[in-house]
Structure formats: structure tokens, C-alpha cells
Amino acid sequence: MTHVRLTLTTIAVMVCAIVSTTMPVAGAHEFSATAMGLLTLKPLINLRLVNKSGTIECSVQKLTAGEAALSAKTTAFTVQYSGCKAFGLAATLSPAQYEFNAEGSVSLVRTMTLKATGCLMTWPSSKNQHLSSMKYTQMGNAVAMTWFVTSMTSFGTGATCEYAEESKGTVEDVWWLALASGAGSVEWK
Known about the structure:
The chain is mainly β. It has one helix at residues 8-22; strands at 31-33, 37-43, 47-51, 54-65, 67-68, 71-72, 74-86, 89-93, 96-101, 105-108, 112-116, 119-123, 134-139, 142-157, 163-179, 186-188. 8% of the residues lie in helices and 59% in strands.
């Protein structure tokens, strides 16, 4: 029988080596997919935007562009909205291009606009970068993406929504992100 004598220093070095290979480093999150392919987005709740003029809700959200990467710090796609109402009025919200960072932020890539009777609202992309409060949760072969952003910048013009620029708008939404083919998984790690 062979005896191995371990010193305290040797044990400490071994523990550090194990921890450094098994524990994620802060700031080291990423999105990954087990296969290349188109992404599918399934909304779990209605989009809800709130600003000085009131509440905007859209009941239909459809992913119109987006492709999985085998490994990436960000994922970007375009979402088309319909079934929208702004403070009780029928409204049209332009498609939104978003970039999601695995560390928990979202950026608006292209300016988004809303049109309703007597109202034009604008969310400028230049003022809506790296907004925090994104939460990602691995759910089987998909990722649940939960929004609760509290610093969305917008401004409104027109009789029903005139207001100067404000930076306290909120966004609430939950999406289920997966590979469209169903053959493989999207992961956040």
C-alpha cells in the first residue's frame, strides 16, 4: 500500500485548481447553442411599456430575424409587434432590433416608434444602450429571458402624448428563446 503525504500547501493548490476550472468567473457568461440555426421566440406575457403618457401593451410578438451562434457574448434579433394599444387607443409599434448581452443588459439597435391617434412616441437607439435588469434562466433546451428595465428613454409628440424626453420608462416582458428546428438547445451559462 502506498501512502501519499499531502501538506496544507499542496491541498490548497489542489482546491484552487479545482475551483478555478469548475466555477464561472464573474463576467464570464455567454449564450451558446448545440447547433447552428434559426432562433424561435415565444412570448410568455404581453409586452408592457410604461412612460409619462401611460401604458402601452402589445399582445403579439414575433421574432422576424435571429440566428444562433455556437458561442457568443451577445445575441441579436428583430421582434415585430402587433395587437398594440397605447393608453386605450389602437397603436402601431415599429419592429424593434435588440441586442442582448449575456451579462444582463439589452441595447436597442434601431430607433423604435409608436403611432397612435394624436401621438408619435420615439425610443432613440442612441439613448437606450446597455440597459440593465435582464434575467436569464436555463429551462431545459431553451432560455427564459425576463425583462424588467426601468430606465428606457423616450419622448412623445402630439395632442395625446406630448412630453419632453424622459428616462424612467419601464419595460416588462418574458420570452422563451429556443432553436426553431427543436433539434438542439440554446443555453445561457
